[in-house]
Write a structure and sequence with these properties.
This protein is an alpha+beta fold. Helix content is 44%, strand content 13%.
Length: 128
Protein backbone atom coordinates (compact mmCIF):
# COMPACT_ATOMS: atom_id res chain seq x y z
CA UNK A 1 0.00 0.00 0.00
CA UNK A 2 1.32 3.46 -0.90
CA UNK A 3 2.52 5.48 2.03
CA UNK A 4 2.85 2.61 4.49
CA UNK A 5 6.62 3.06 4.89
CA UNK A 6 7.75 5.27 7.77
CA UNK A 7 9.78 8.35 6.82
CA UNK A 8 12.43 9.44 9.33
CA UNK A 9 15.08 12.11 9.54
CA UNK A 10 17.81 9.48 9.31
CA UNK A 11 17.20 8.99 5.58
CA UNK A 12 19.81 10.58 3.29
CA UNK A 13 17.49 11.56 0.42
CA UNK A 14 13.72 11.92 0.72
CA UNK A 15 11.36 12.46 -2.20
CA UNK A 16 8.57 14.95 -1.51
CA UNK A 17 6.06 12.62 -3.18
CA UNK A 18 6.83 9.99 -0.55
CA UNK A 19 6.13 12.56 2.17
CA UNK A 20 2.82 13.49 0.53
CA UNK A 21 1.79 9.81 0.27
CA UNK A 22 2.81 9.13 3.86
CA UNK A 23 0.82 12.10 5.18
CA UNK A 24 -2.27 10.92 3.28
CA UNK A 25 -1.79 7.37 4.57
CA UNK A 26 -1.38 8.50 8.19
CA UNK A 27 -4.34 10.89 8.02
CA UNK A 28 -6.55 8.09 6.66
CA UNK A 29 -5.27 5.68 9.31
CA UNK A 30 -5.87 8.24 12.06
CA UNK A 31 -9.42 8.85 10.86
CA UNK A 32 -10.22 5.12 10.65
CA UNK A 33 -8.69 4.45 14.06
CA UNK A 34 -10.63 7.25 15.72
CA UNK A 35 -13.89 6.17 14.03
CA UNK A 36 -13.39 2.73 15.57
CA UNK A 37 -13.01 4.41 18.96
CA UNK A 38 -9.36 3.48 19.36
CA UNK A 39 -6.55 5.90 20.19
CA UNK A 40 -4.17 6.75 17.34
CA UNK A 41 -0.61 5.45 17.79
CA UNK A 42 1.56 8.12 19.47
CA UNK A 43 4.60 7.42 17.28
CA UNK A 44 2.57 7.66 14.09
CA UNK A 45 0.92 10.85 15.36
CA UNK A 46 4.36 12.36 16.05
CA UNK A 47 5.53 11.30 12.59
CA UNK A 48 2.46 12.91 11.01
CA UNK A 49 3.13 16.15 12.90
CA UNK A 50 6.79 16.17 11.80
CA UNK A 51 5.93 15.42 8.17
CA UNK A 52 3.35 18.20 8.08
CA UNK A 53 5.87 20.62 9.61
CA UNK A 54 8.58 19.85 7.04
CA UNK A 55 5.99 20.06 4.27
CA UNK A 56 4.81 23.47 5.47
CA UNK A 57 8.40 24.73 5.53
CA UNK A 58 9.76 23.12 2.35
CA UNK A 59 6.75 23.42 0.05
CA UNK A 60 7.27 27.17 -0.33
CA UNK A 61 10.87 26.72 -1.49
CA UNK A 62 10.15 24.16 -4.19
CA UNK A 63 7.77 24.70 -7.05
CA UNK A 64 8.03 20.99 -7.79
CA UNK A 65 6.94 19.77 -4.34
CA UNK A 66 3.86 17.95 -5.66
CA UNK A 67 5.81 16.47 -8.57
CA UNK A 68 8.94 15.37 -6.75
CA UNK A 69 11.56 17.45 -4.98
CA UNK A 70 14.48 15.91 -3.18
CA UNK A 71 15.36 16.70 0.40
CA UNK A 72 19.06 15.96 0.97
CA UNK A 73 20.26 15.37 4.53
CA UNK A 74 23.03 17.80 5.50
CA UNK A 75 25.38 14.99 6.59
CA UNK A 76 24.97 13.39 3.13
CA UNK A 77 25.25 16.57 1.04
CA UNK A 78 28.93 16.12 0.11
CA UNK A 79 28.25 12.62 -1.25
CA UNK A 80 25.22 14.02 -3.07
CA UNK A 81 27.37 16.78 -4.62
CA UNK A 82 29.92 14.24 -5.86
CA UNK A 83 27.19 12.05 -7.37
CA UNK A 84 25.58 15.08 -9.00
CA UNK A 85 28.91 16.18 -10.49
CA UNK A 86 29.43 12.70 -11.93
CA UNK A 87 25.84 12.47 -13.23
CA UNK A 88 26.02 15.77 -15.12
CA UNK A 89 29.41 14.90 -16.62
CA UNK A 90 31.43 17.44 -14.64
CA UNK A 91 33.78 14.66 -13.50
CA UNK A 92 35.38 12.44 -16.16
CA UNK A 93 34.61 8.72 -15.94
CA UNK A 94 38.30 7.73 -15.57
CA UNK A 95 38.53 10.04 -12.52
CA UNK A 96 42.27 10.58 -12.47
CA UNK A 97 44.37 13.44 -11.24
CA UNK A 98 43.51 16.36 -10.86
CA UNK A 99 39.86 15.36 -10.40
CA UNK A 100 40.80 13.36 -7.32
CA UNK A 101 42.05 16.60 -5.73
CA UNK A 102 38.77 18.52 -5.73
CA UNK A 103 38.03 20.48 -2.57
CA UNK A 104 34.59 18.97 -2.07
CA UNK A 105 33.92 21.06 1.02
CA UNK A 106 34.27 24.22 -1.04
CA UNK A 107 32.27 22.72 -3.92
CA UNK A 108 29.48 21.84 -1.48
CA UNK A 109 29.43 25.37 -0.08
CA UNK A 110 29.05 26.77 -3.60
CA UNK A 111 26.34 24.25 -4.52
CA UNK A 112 24.35 25.01 -1.36
CA UNK A 113 23.84 28.57 -2.63
CA UNK A 114 21.15 27.12 -4.94
CA UNK A 115 19.45 25.24 -2.08
CA UNK A 116 17.45 26.19 1.00
CA UNK A 117 17.91 24.56 4.37
CA UNK A 118 14.79 23.20 6.09
CA UNK A 119 14.34 21.44 9.40
CA UNK A 120 12.95 17.92 9.63
CA UNK A 121 12.49 17.03 13.29
CA UNK A 122 15.79 18.64 14.33
CA UNK A 123 17.86 17.59 11.30
CA UNK A 124 18.86 19.92 8.48
CA UNK A 125 17.86 18.99 4.94
CA UNK A 126 18.54 20.89 1.71
CA UNK A 127 15.99 21.48 -1.03
CA UNK A 128 15.76 23.58 -4.18
Amino acid sequence: MKGDTEITNSTDVIDSRDIIERIEYLEDLKERTELEGDPFDEDEDAELTNLKAVTDEAEGYSGDWKYGSQLIRDSYFEDYAQELAEDIGAIPQDLGWPCTCIDWGRAVDELKVDYTCVDFDGVEYWIR
